[in-house]
């Protein structure tokens, strides 16, 4: 598969990637997207234990072919990999499929406008000569799971979100088949769900990772708050028994 991703170029010891743009200084588009991206990355590192190393990242270039522009998922998850630490090397600063030897297991797009090509090509992309949507590209390169979250309901044509805020697909024999809710990503061992609540003081509908029982994967702050509540309940029980918790 890697050879195909490299446009059938001969295998070499070290590929020349000097022509590839890995940092284009393009900012994230709004506060909502920025917060949502972090909510899809931080909890995995704070509270998730899949039993293997993994890379979770937001807004990082995914380079799948040597002669193609990268695609930039709003969030991605890749199992069985260690995060590169020598970021002085260009090949360590983005997700190069030929360096890691595999595509991510999950790619997620968060819709903020109609220009993102998540499910249908925008007019601007068509004018530029693009022929494939992000969904089609992810399927072609073999990403097992693809999710689109449309919190502002920008993609509501009949062939797009079908009135939903979240759609999730699984790759089956090279084609994406839509998963029914609840969205359990079986080969990854994690789920996706819509969650109503406050994240960093902002109430709203958020896309969250969850376990098989649809319990959200906690952020670090949520985990610390849960531990504080447990400690307070234990202290109350001890006081009810006539025991000073400070002396235990």
Topology (SSEs and partners):
Blueprint: H1 2-5, H2 31-39, H3 42-47, E1 54-57, E2 62-63, E3 75-79, E4 95-96, H4 97-100, E5 106-110, H5 123-127, H6 134-141, E6 145-149, E7 166-172, E8 175-178, E9 183-185, E10 190-199, E11 202-210, H7 220-240
Parallel strand pairs: 2-4, 5-6
Antiparallel strand pairs: 1-3, 3-5, 6-7, 7-8, 9-10, 10-11
What do you see in this structure?
By secondary structure, this protein is α+β, with helices and mostly antiparallel strands. It folds into two domains: 2-217, tt1808, chain A, CATH 3.90.1570; 218-248. It is built from seven helices and eleven strands. The chain has helices at 2-5, 31-39, 42-47, 97-100, 123-127, 134-141, 220-240; strands at 54-57, 62-63, 75-79, 95-96, 106-110, 145-149, 166-172, 175-178, 183-185, 190-199, 202-210. A six-stranded mixed β-sheet has the order 1-3-5-6-7-8. A three-stranded antiparallel β-sheet has the order 9-10-11. A hairpin with a 2-residue loop joins strand 10 (190-199) and strand 11. The N and C termini lie far apart (60 Å). Mean pLDDT is 90; it is low at 8-13.
Contiguous uncertain segments of 5+ residues? 8-13
Distance between the termini: 60 Å
The radius of gyration computed from the alpha-carbon positions, rounded to a whole number of angstroms, is 21 Å
CATH architecture of the largest domain: Alpha-Beta Complex
- The coarse overall form would be globular
Order of helices and strands: HHHEEEEHEHHEEEEEEH
In helices, the fraction of residues equals 10-25%
Residue-averaged pLDDT: 90
Total beta-strand segments:
11
Largest sheet: 6 strands, mixed
CATH fold naming of the largest domain: tt1808, chain A
Number of domains: 2
Give the C-level CATH assignment of the largest domain: Alpha Beta
Report strand %: 15-25%
Spatial strand order of the main sheet: 1-3-5-6-7-8
Helical segment tally? Answer: 7
What structural class results from the helix and strand content? alpha+beta
């Amino acid at each position: 598969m890697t050879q195909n991703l490299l446009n059938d170029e001969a295998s070499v010891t070290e590929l020349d990637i000097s022509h590839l743009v890995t940092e284009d200084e393009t900012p994230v588009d709004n506060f909502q997207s920025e917060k949502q991206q972090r909510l899809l990355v931080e909890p995995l590192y704070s509270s998730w234990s899949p039993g293997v190393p993994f890379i979770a990242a937001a807004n990082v270039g995914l380079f799948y072919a040597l002669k193609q522009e990268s695609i930039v998922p709003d969030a991605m998850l890749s199992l069985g990999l260690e995060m590169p630490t020598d970021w002085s090397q260009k090949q360590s600063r983005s997700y190069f499929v030929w360096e890691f030897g595999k595509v991510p297991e999950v790619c997620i797009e968060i819709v903020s406008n109609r220009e993102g090509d998540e499910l249908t090509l925008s007019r601007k992309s068509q004018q530029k000569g693009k022929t494939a949507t992000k969904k089609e590209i992810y399927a072609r390169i073999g990403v097992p799971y693809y999710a689109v979250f449309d919190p502002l309901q920008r993609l509501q044509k009949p062939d797009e979100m079908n009135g939903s805020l979240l759609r999730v697909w699984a790759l089956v024999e090279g084609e994406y088949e839509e998963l029914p809710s609840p969205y359990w990503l079986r080969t990854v061992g994690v789920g996706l769900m819509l969650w109503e609540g406050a994240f960093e003081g902002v109430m709203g509908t958020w896309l969250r990772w969850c376990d098989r029982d649809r319990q959200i994967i906690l952020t670090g702050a949520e985990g610390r708050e849960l531990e504080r509540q447990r400690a307070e309940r234990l202290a109350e029980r001890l006081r009810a028994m006539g025991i000073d918790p400070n002396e235990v």
